[in-house]
Amino acid sequence: MKLISKPAHGTRAFTLVEIMVASSIGIFVLAAGFVFLNTVIRMTAGVTSQTVINQKAGNALEMMQSRIRFATSISNDVTGNTLTLGFDDNCAVDSSGDGVTYNDSDHYEIFKFVGVNSTNITLCSTNKLLYYTNKNSLNYRTLIPSGLRNLPGNPIFTVTNKVMVVIRFGISDAYTRDGYQAIDMQGTAISLNRPLVTNILSILP
């Protein structure tokens, strides 16, 4: 028996032109996907960076306000870069001998701005805020590690009437890819252990 094979009819393949067109469309789709992904990553990075800066600023301000409220004495240097707070370690003992047991300053804590006084973001990139739990100790905690700056025309700390502190500062991050992230903070705090003669507070500067 002799088998006769019939030639296949209707079999088609992709032409070179069709392959090139399909490849071009695929490349455009992939490029659009990469652009979208890159945009999402940049937006997420910006939001994350701003959130971190906001958290640092808020935590630092809250920390300073909480310590100022319990301070028995408050003072700042002439530059407004250092805030010194006195605290009574034992309210049952009158260590100052003035007849009052709760207004002594048995130890001092310091909030200290370190860096260049400026509003320029680049110049302030390495500025920081330190907190010394005891001014006689070299140990400190870094509240703001970088980017601390002055607000225009204002020092970091302003003490008025010896019991009220006005705190003004900004934080900026100049190293983000799309420019920088920044926040400005202003707050006040009043000592709860203030003497009777300071109960009438002066107008804020």
Sequence stretches where pLDDT stays below 50 over 5 or more residues: none
In DSSP terms, counting alpha (H) and pi (I) runs of 4 or more, how many helices? 1
Neighbour order of strands in the largest sheet: 1-2-3-4-5
Q: Give the rounded overall mean pLDDT.
A: 82
What is the overall shape? rod-shaped
Order of helices and strands: HEEEEEEEEE
Query: How much is the radius of gyration in Å?
Result: 32 Å
Percentage of residues in helical conformation: 25-40%
Distance between the termini: 115 Å
Structural description of this entry:
The structure is a single chain. The chain is α+β, with helices and mostly antiparallel strands and 205 residues long. The protein has one domain. 26% of the residues lie in helices and 26% in strands. The chain has a five-stranded antiparallel beta sheet with strand order 1-2-3-4-5, with helices on one face. Strands 6, 7, 8 and 9 form a four-stranded antiparallel beta sheet that branches. A hairpin with a 3-residue loop joins strand 7 and strand 8. The longest helix has 54 residues. The chain is rod-shaped, with a radius of gyration of 32 Å. The protein starts with 15 loop residues before the first helix and ends in a 15-residue tail after the last strand. The model has no long low-confidence stretch (mean pLDDT 82).
